[in-house]
Amino acid sequence: MDFLEIMAYAREHNCSDVHLTVGTATAVRRFGKLELLDPVPPAKEVESLILSILNEDQQRKVLSGKDLDFSGLTPDGARMRVNVYHQRNNLAASIRLLENKTPTFANLGLPDTVRKLAEEPRGMVLVTGPTGSGKTTTLAAMIDYINKNQAKHVMTIEDPIEYIYPHGKAMIHQREVGRDVDSFATALRSALREDPDIILVGEMRDYETISAAVTAAETGHLVLSTLHTTSAPQTIERIVDACPPHGQNQMRMQLASVLRGVITQQLIPMANDEGRVVATEILLNNDAVGNLIRENKCHQLVSTMQSNLATGMHTLNHDLKTLVMQGKITRESAIAFSTNPKEMMSFI
Q1: Is there a contact between 157 and 224 (Cβ–Cβ < 8 Å)?
Q2: For residue 274, what pLDDT band results from cuts at 50, 70 and 90?
Q3: CB-side exposure of 200: number of CA atoms within 13 Å?
Q4: Contacts 24+ apart (CB under 8 A), 247-253
Q5: What whole-number distance in Å separates Cα of residue 18 and Cα of residue 8?
Q6: In angstroms, what is the C-alpha Rg of the chain?
Q7: What is the DSSP string of 209-243?
Q8: Residues 181-192: pLDDT tens digits?
């Protein structure tokens, strides 16, 4: 198959990723599971296929031994995110298929609390979860909602740019790390002088970026970002642990003040094997949550979420239990994806 045929097959079969590897069968990820396609194509054919995705400058970088991470369009106009790398002295590529149409909250099945967080005038909202859990898609839905409903200036800092937003009610500027700006932290510092209302930071990877993002939230902006954490309490701890020891208490004070909410999510295989459904954990900042963050008692946040269901908070286990009761996922999946399997087993 040529590249267009592979991508057409992947989209037709609802695959999220395609893996091309010289000397190995082409693989696709469908509903979270990897599937190998027969037969194994000739090595030269796969190498030519990977190089055909790249422009001349990108080809030179790859052939000189560098890895590449970029987004772009297939010849038929479909968006994709591509990582080209070397393994066992051969080329390989991982391709994430992206939707051309920006997702909505209704499409994704997200709770209404996420919409309310998108309406916050200032502060910090974090979307967290493991790789492939749909964090970028949730942020895209939030930006799409803002674009349709608020006359705001939105600045996004991404690596790479995945979704393209047309100007709607909002004005949206998108900056790509490595192309438009050197780093997330540099772009954040620059953004403060560019009159944004909302700043989307693709990922808070290091202390410098975290510090700049918190400062932006403190100065009256709404900052949206992601972290690779699997629970709301772990998210707070990860941010604090990224700081030097002498600055951790200060970071707790800042987070207690600027944090508006943490949305942690997982994508769970549906019981009918026809897709995946999102399960969420939501922490909203209030006086009790702020005090626990300041006093370094994040382990107590779980009980706070459990006792504040009426305000829109809930734990991941609570959402998993609801999905089991609705027949959307199996009990086995709920236990497998839970961050507290023992509690999950007692729930169901």
Answers
A1: no
A2: confident
A3: 32
A4: 251/210, 251/214, 252/293, 252/294, 252/296, 253/294
A5: 11
A6: 21
A7: HHHHHHHHHHTT-EEEEEE--SSHHHHHHHHHHTS
A8: 999 999 999 999
pLDDT in tens, 74-122: 877 788 999 999 999 899 999 999 887 888 898 899 999 999 999 999 9
Residues 17-74 have pLDDT tens digits of: 999 999 999 999 998 899 999 888 999 999 999 999 999 999 999 999 999 999 888 8
Whether 304 and 311 have beta carbons less than 8 Å apart is answered as no
| Sign of the dihedral through C-alpha 319, 109, 79, 136 | negative
pLDDT above 80: residue 208: yes
CB 81 within 8 A of CB 162: yes
The b-or-e profile of 39-57 (16+ CB within 10 A means b, else e) is eebeeeebbebbeebbeee
Domains of the chain and any CATH numbers: 3-97 (3.30.450.90), 105-347 (3.40.50.300)
Cα–Cα dist 305/17, whole Å: 34
Alpha carbon distance 82, 94 (integer Å): 6
Q: What pTM, to 2 d.p., does this model score?
A: 0.90
Where does residue 274 rank: exposed (0-12), middle (13-18), buried (19+ CB within 10 A)? Answer: exposed
Q: How far is CA 36 from CA 18, 49, 89, 170, in A?
A: 10, 17, 21, 43
